[in-house]
Specification:
Blueprint: H1 4-19, E1 33-37, E2 49-55, E3 73-79, E4 82-88, H2 99-102, H3 104-112, E5 116-125, E6 135-142, H4 171-183, E7 188-195, H5 204-212, E8 217-219, H6 223-231, E9 235-245, H7 256-280
Parallel strand pairs: 1-4, 1-5, 5-9, 6-7, 7-8
Antiparallel strand pairs: 2-3, 3-4, 5-8, 6-9
Helix pairs in contact: 1-3, 4-7
The structure holds hypoxanthine.
């Protein structure tokens, strides 16, 4: 079993290596927000004012994604006036990492100074109210089907042993995203995201079960990252791009290609919503909690 010192030491080790590329101590460079880009959204990071880029593989001890289409690097830059650290590609539990490794990047970004975590993903629609191409603001989550990222010895310095999940997705940030969607006339759905381990998609019976449980969308990431962030006192928000109906309601078997195609097609709208929302989040860190 991984002891708490290991995880803490791993975070410190990654942080020390990153500091060789980026000076987090300087006022200018301290990221206020962290953004994790899901499938199809990676290009967003190529279009911002970039200060530094660090591929994950250059960081000893850092989990590296093996999924095609996931770039695997940190991009440091500015969106509007907001200093951000962006993860262009994330790691998933199904790649074989422990859940504490899956959330290690979130812990490292917190260590850099980020107070806000903005999560994005591609997801399958469970609710009949959703259709492929929809954007869904996360209002709550179901993480019960995957191990908690907090299992193991607690690092008191990060957070409490038994953190409350009464509000995972910060109400203030949600309101900013809603307002941004209204301003740009972007249709924004809202709902509950359920995480599975993946990598297989769901059977129709599983999708019916998830619907019964109150889930609106299903995917293979996000809820554990949100838990780790809440554990460390970050303000969290998230948006899903609904790429397909879960279980493949389209009549043909669901494929990663179909998911990627719809994610790519929705990317411009998704990008607009994420970037414009982040611009409004400057100065909205944990001090306002
Ligand atoms: N299920 C799980 N994860 C997903 C899906 C899905 O239908 N679509 C995109 N990510």
């Amino acid at each position: 079993m991984e002891g708490s010192m290991d995880m803490r030491e791993k975070v410190e080790q990654c942080y020390r290596q990153l500091r060789q590329s980026v000076d987090f101590q300087s006022q200018d460079f301290r990221p206020e927000a962290a953004l994790i880009l899901g499938s199809g959204l990676g290009a967003l990071a190529d279009e911002i004012e970039t200060e530094a880029v660090v591929p994950y593989r250059e960081l000893e001890g850092f989990p590296v994604s093996t999924v095609a289409g996931h770039k695997g690097r940190f991009v440091f830059g500015r969106i509007g006036g907001l200093p951000v650290v962006i993860m262009q590609g994330r790691v998933h539990y199904y790649e074989g990492y422990s859940m504490s490794d899956v959330v290690l990047p979130v812990r490292v970004m917190r260590r850099m100074g980020a107070e806000i975590l903005f999560l994005t993903n591609a997801a399958g629609g469970v609710s009949e109210k959703l259709a492929p191409g929809d954007l869904m603001l996360l209002t709550d989550q179901i993480s019960t089907f995957v191990p908690s990222p907090l299992i193991g010895k607690n690092v008191e310095e990060w957070g409490t042993r038994f953190p409350s999940m009464d509000t995972v997705y910060d109400e203030g940030l949600r309101e900013i995203i809603r307002e941004t969607a209204r301003e740009h006339r972007i249709r924004l759905q809202e709902g509950i995201y359920l995480q599975t381990t993946g990598p297989n998609y769901e059977s129709p019976a599983e999708v019916r079960m998830f619907a019964t449980l109150g889930a609106d969308a299903v995917g293979m990431s996000t809820t554990v990252e949100a838990i780790a962030a809440v554990h460390m006192g970050m303000r969290v928000c998230g948006i899903s791009c609904i790429t397909n109906m879960a279980g493949g309601a389209s009549g043909k078997p669901l494929s990663h290609e179909e998911v990627s195609e719809i994610a790519d097609r929705t990317a411009p709208l998704f990008k607009k919503l994420v970037v414009s929302s982040l611009e409004k989040m400057a100065g909205q860190g944990t001090d306002n909690r």
